[in-house]
Amino acid sequence: MYTLGYTPTVDYYEYWINPPKQLELEETNRGLNDLFGNRGARHVEERNMIVKRITIPALILLLSVFLRTIDAAEKLVADYGGHAGFQSALWVAKDLKIFDKHGLDVEIIMITGSARSVAALFGGSTQFATGSATGPLAAAVRGSDVKIIAASYNKFPYAFVVKPDIRSPKDLRGKKINILNFGGSNDLALQLALKEWGIKQTEVQVIIGGDAPTRMGSLMAGRMDATILSPPHLTIAVQAGYRVLADMGEMSANFPQSTLNTRGSLLREKRDMVKRFVRSYAEAVYAIKTDAERTTKVFAKRMGVNDPATIKSTYEYFAPRFSFPPRVSLSGVRDTLRFYAEQNVDFKNRTAEEFVDHSLMDELEKEGFFKKLGS
Questions:
Q1: Per-residue pLDDT tens for 285-328?
Q2: What is the domain-level CATH number for residue 97?
Q3: Strand pairing partners for 228?
Q4: pTM for the full predicted model
């Protein structure tokens, strides 16, 4: 039995199929008006005098400089999914000024859930989306132009956390289980776990409960019997006496948990900019794996956790599991497609290579970028 803990306000699948464009057009028109709109008679007279004195070559040079200035000043927006350690690649790239190093002005915002993330990408609110592979795969099989271009984390990062009186999976029957949302990695991890345990989905009550702090709070308040958590919230729950029923990172299935996604059109039209973003992303992953001192400071700030022991254990749990270079696990995509194909014909007879574009990763590998980071 599935229960919504809130009322959805957006049809995310409709966003994937028919992404809105009107907002983009309105913003573009406003920008053009700001740049070239009415400026008064005096400005017109001055402009005409200048034009008379400028040659055609000079105009061409001026235009090229102007266009480069606009491109350099372009603001990019990328999302991250929450405050767990496996979601930290963009925090580190931002807070360690790695984006700045590669000539990018990036704002990072939190959007929970892969479905919402992909909806924001196609709505034009972001240029880069991160999250589990479930969102971009579900969008792409329906014809949306989304590409998975990298992945920093290719394992389930979760543990199944339960009340102390739940001793085995069979005790979950009839119990309330909290997850982030339907269709995302929380949902997939739960379904795979129930399948391994031989429990039918109809035998438990699955409730949408929000982000990790909210789900942990519901568990501790006694409103839920079980939830899915990762450090630091996993650490806090265990310290409070709750039990880990299973570490989902040890499950047999592979899964691209933290992918970097963008629109195929952006990859084609602004390839150099996308490549610089991937460089920044990869360098952030390298920093996570090798620079504990600076990374843990970012963790503490972004997670809002002041306890050094909790931050240390969170870092030690996640850092070795990050993928460097941050390639997408094609076997993980195949496992995901195979699982969803049992439930949805759209996923049948599809290959991982249809959805993953490793061309930028291949270029960086060939250029020796990843080796240079370690030198």
A1: 999 999 999 999 999 999 998 899 999 999 998 999 999 999 99
A2: 3.40.190.10
A3: 160
A4: 0.71
Question: What span, in angstroms and rounded, lies between the C-alpha atoms of 247 and 228?
Answer: 10
Could you give the CA distance from residue 277 to residue 106 in angstroms, rounded to a whole number? 9
- DSSP state letters, 226-256: EEEE-TTHHHHHHHTT-EEEEEGGGSS----
Tell me, yes or no, whether 189 and 62 share the same domain.
no
Place of tokens 């880069």: 128
* Domain range enclosing 149: 75-155+256-303+320-373
Residues 146 and 261 reside in one and the same domain: yes
Structure tokens at 331: 């076997």
Task: Dig out the tokens for 148 from the structure.
Answer: 């998975």
Token reading at 302: 């972004």
CB 229 within 8 A of CB 99: no
SS3 351: coil
Write the pLDDT tens digit of every residue in 142-182: 999 999 999 999 988 888 999 999 999 999 999 999 998 78
* Residue 192 in tokens: 């795979």
Tokens of 43: 């400005």
Do 138 and 57 lie in one domain? The reply is no
Among candidate residues 35, 21, 98, the one with its CA nearest the CA of residue 276: 98
